[in-house]
Amino acid sequence: MTVVDTTPATLREAPIPPDGMYEGPRILRRVPEGWEERPYDRFEVVPLGRVIGAEIRGLDLSRPLEPALREELNRALLEWKVLFFRGQHLTPERQRGFARHWGELETNPLLATGTSEDVVRFDKGSGATPTFENIWHTDVTFRTRPALGAVLQLREVPPVGGDTLWADMAAAYDNLPAEVKDRIDGATAVHDFIPGFARFYGPERLAPFQEMFPPVEHPVVRTHPETGRRMLFVNTSFTTRITGMERAESDRLLSFLCRQAHVPEYQVRFHWQAGDIAFWDNRATQHYAVNDYAPHRRVAERVAIEGDQPF
């Protein structure tokens, strides 16, 4: 029997290694072309990576943010995609108040809450509940309007391990072969909560939420609403297929695209201390919580900010 390869020529001929990775120089642009870089007057920015991740020093986040300070922090967020603040020890209310400077807070009935319904609490490591956050993902892309960002605080840290990594998905897009860019520009993909949350819960627990969170379609390449940068917007947890493609073709291309978050040049890794805060742009990043701390306990609380519909 003759087997016919139906993969489009542009994708079939693209130089895609089996593991999805490339060797050699990479395009590492932290900001869009033409972006005006200005000094920061109200705090110190200490870069932790080439394209993503910076520690912000000289701020007490328990104090109210004046408009000018909020504008500078937002500019830093857009430039560095994830900001780190050491030793803040915010109360849940102060943490929520800080996040509200960027919009209304999001609730997620699929996750355990802390002091209020918009504070998600992750208490992992020491009990019988397994942890599954060690997968590259963007939060809640199964929503029509995925979260703008999130503010995470570590309440209790293990003696070793428990780091979190973030990846810059604009850098991931910049380095795709031209043939792959041509293939995915204008394409959409289906996002569904069930593949991601099946790791946590059985079918009986998930069934009631299927009407609340039906599958949605988003662009495979998203345009950032504030910077204008183009970014990969697919992830292993929630993206199930590329619209209009045969399943085998879709699986091959999605696997390749999702592996781009694994490239170290696009990443920053943060080692937590109790009271530290990370504030990340969920539109522009993926993240991965390293699961290497059991049987020690790791307790974190997160608030998420409502976002816009990707375009």
Automatic annotation (TrEMBL):
This is TauD/TfdA family dioxygenase. Pfam families: TauD (PF02668). Coiled coil: none annotated. PANTHER family: ALPHA-KETOGLUTARATE-DEPENDENT SULFONATE DIOXYGENASE. InterPro entries: AtsK-like, TauD/TfdA-like. The lineage of its organism: Bacteria, Bacillati, Actinomycetota, Actinomycetes, Kitasatosporales. Belongs to the TfdA dioxygenase family. Residues 45-302 form the TauD/TfdA-like domain. One of its GO terms (molecular function) is dioxygenase activity. Keywords: Dioxygenase, Iron, Metal-binding, Oxidoreductase. It comes from the Bacteria.
